[in-house]
User: Fold these one by one.
Assistant:
Number 1:
Amino acid sequence: MARELAVVLASGGLDSCVCLAEAARDHDLALLHVNYGQRTEARELAAFGALADHYGAARRLVADIGYLKAIGGSSLLDPALAVETAGLPAVGAPVPSTYVPFRNAHLLAIGVSWAEVIGAGSLWIGAVEEDSSGYPDCREEFYRRFAAAVDAGTKPGTRIRIETPLIRLDKAAIVRRGLALGAPLHLTWSCYTEADTACGVCESCRLRLRGFAGAGVEDPIPYAPRGA
Amino acid sequence: MARELAVVLASGGLDSCVCLAEAARDHDLALLHVNYGQRTEARELAAFGALADHYGAARRLVADIGYLKAIGGSSLLDPALAVETAGLPAVGAPVPSTYVPFRNAHLLAIGVSWAEVIGAGSLWIGAVEEDSSGYPDCREEFYRRFAAAVDAGTKPGTRIRIETPLIRLDKAAIVRRGLALGAPLHLTWSCYTEADTACGVCESCRLRLRGFAGAGVEDPIPYAPRGA
């Protein structure tokens, strides 16, 4: 029997890999990757391809929203702005420079359009509110409100749930959940700055490494030697 | 004194021109045009440029979301699907084939990202719910809900209003309002199918012509000869 079709946003990172593993439990998969001119675009796309191959997903869509680079406003997009490497943001700290203004709304809009055309009943995104970088477009409340907009802005017969299975997990719980689901964490890529071996010091590497440390397992991807 | 900055979505059509004229009354303008692989993309872009020149808007952004064409599902994007020319949709009729699934959410997301980066306090879109084609993403309720998602998904200090000044107007009222504001309606383009002289029979041309007829004025743009 055919299973319900799910569109899953897959950046190629740790969180989206575990989100994908959750969706794969009882859905047929349509995998969506979005390039937006970020520093490590090619490396993330390679990780997306490896994950899609791993899950045998025939339906894949790679969308390009390079206009976000023209809009700017983020150190992930603008070589003139430095990516923070000094540590993790404290609670109540300002939104980090790596925030790409309202980016996740673009990812959701693309996913909803695709889901409406192919008849998928849900759209999955590995957003994390707790233990994250404090991006406003990763808040659970944002997803709840966006889902209400989807109900009003699509055809009367369209029903697309927005699924955020990681939203309340911390990074250690995400790593543990991924291991429990047999997710191919070795295929993922999280580093914001490099494309061969992860830097280990950017905000994204630090969050990832803290997650593996908290779960008591070693991160299977290679990191650049420290203190050389 | 500098006026508040407004991002205005301008397709180059009649509605967006009147929306632009409304915004221009008391805002500095940042004009946004989006190409999405529609049949008359080049003609619409030319109309956008003419409108931006008319209003002396220095800030302009043209964003490309060609991935919508890959997603498909609309006769505006897919040459294999016919554009309806038989008349205007009746109340309660199914959503027409020209509906581009959830398209306006993409336009809003781009506008919000740009507004957040440049510090604009509002985003304007010439969506029309009454007397329109019955697209779900033109409903007032969709904009209300999307605005709530914007509040949750942008930085704590960001406040961006979504302005839909035409949402409850019929086409004749839009034409009259445009004339009252001195909007350059002769520079606009609405036809879904042609790029030199408007066809006069597609859904968009019919709505437009009905609006001018209702306002008792002649449409200043050229139409192809009928019944030849």
Number 2:
Amino acid sequence: MRSFDLRERDVPEPRYGELLVKVRYLSVDPYMRGRMDDADSYAEPWEVGAAMEGAIVGEVVESRSDAYDAGDLVTGNGTWANYSLLDADSVSPVDPSIADLPAYLGVLGMPGRTAYFGLLEVGEPDPGETVVVSGAAGAVGSVVGQIAKMNGCRVVGFAGSDEKVEWLTDDLGFDAGINYKRVDDYRGALDEAAPDGVDVYFDNVGGPITDAVFTKLNVDARVAVCGQIAHYNDEEVPTGPRKLPQLIAPRAKVQGLLVSDFATRFGKASEQLGTWVASGDLAHRESVVDGLENAPDAFLGLFSGDNIGKQVVRVSGR
Amino acid sequence: MRSFDLRERDVPEPRYGELLVKVRYLSVDPYMRGRMDDADSYAEPWEVGAAMEGAIVGEVVESRSDAYDAGDLVTGNGTWANYSLLDADSVSPVDPSIADLPAYLGVLGMPGRTAYFGLLEVGEPDPGETVVVSGAAGAVGSVVGQIAKMNGCRVVGFAGSDEKVEWLTDDLGFDAGINYKRVDDYRGALDEAAPDGVDVYFDNVGGPITDAVFTKLNVDARVAVCGQIAHYNDEEVPTGPRKLPQLIAPRAKVQGLLVSDFATRFGKASEQLGTWVASGDLAHRESVVDGLENAPDAFLGLFSGDNIGKQVVRVSGR
């Protein structure tokens, strides 16, 4: 069965208020998997046969808005294509002096804002607390851990390779990293890495890592459920240890997280993230796959953990 | 194996600041099951051989405190015994003109306060919202549902007999009740009883009822995890459908609840609950087992749902 298909279409004409953008980079994100199911959720299911949509960075080649001129670099939601039409109202300017273009799909894009609001507003970390992050070397997790460090926390990350763990501890300042593909006893690893228990758990993954972390929750612990990538391809409802009985003694709070709930404050977050990136306080990394035709593989690679940091696809330019 | 034993001891002598109380009623509560395991939790494990402890109502027979005289009725934490020593600082007066003594172990005791704070502070129900309660005919659940009704909510309760369900809908004003021992399809039953989905779930039970409710959570739903009685006697860590993936789209919040966290405001809650009981706005019911020697059976009966409303044991008096 062929799930993805590359098709030729005419370059579209922008209408009033629209920009024709030459796509330079496009983003592949785990949440897109949910849109491939025919189920009600926060993002509408995609139509079979329609172009994939998602965040892009590109160059305006034709503008029918006063806000942007041809040649401007912008980011917004477009299609997986060489050229994409975007509403001028819905895009943001890109400043390549702060960071290279791919960063605008990661640390300076939706993943960075997800980390920012999810950690600070749902996780609410206090100095001296222990923050555990799953998917820690991903686009969201890597930012979560660094902001937690800025807030004076002990930070422990789960990631899927020694190279990723080294990046966390050597470059991002994590206090400890656990390679979940090499360690069998996650609880034992946490005893060592989080000896005072877990105050905040930022979960991108689910599965056995999450099962282990839930046995270590401290009183008043907060769990931000950002993603559950281990389960996105499950055909049946996944089962596992029941977690509600584990919440009573610690009075722990577990909350689902969608970054769109914080949309009114995206501007402030982007400004703060941009300042940290420009100053070097917030490190970031992007994994780049070349060629629009390879976007499906880049997307699928998210589920086997191919990416370190943010996974993007270069469509044109350097 | 014999788990409970009745032993004769000398009536103890109160020391300065203590009251010798003739126990009239004692409380059996599901949380006591946790204290029978040798595991760290919010309540210390009981020592084998020591007297069972819990809430009692009784009459002061000897006072070494200026705050109470012989003949006063009080409630506090004592032992499962004919006579119990209590610190005068830790007891509350009982006013039999507001309600009969057993009510001070239920609606006017810890269960009532648990319902009050759990619903209002964790569940945070708004008028027009749908509140679902499991264990709805129990000491906590029956109060939760009535306070939710006072707050203008649609209220649906799960209970384990037709008699219980009738009590909920005919006497307590619940909008719908589901006898989970007669219905197989809990989701289908919820489609009918909670057609607009679930905004607040007050969970006393866990298990398949909870599994069904989690599939119906609305955006911004709140779940107060008060008890998980279905799992207290599990020998192994119980498994079930994973719930974290279900929290993301609705951004639902799930929080463990211990009433002791609200201790500084117990006075205000008790006053409010007393006012509602005195005015008849808050109905209550107690199931009474006679005789100290039958306290173990009364306790075990909680796990088969023998009680309607609050289960108490009459130790002496009427």
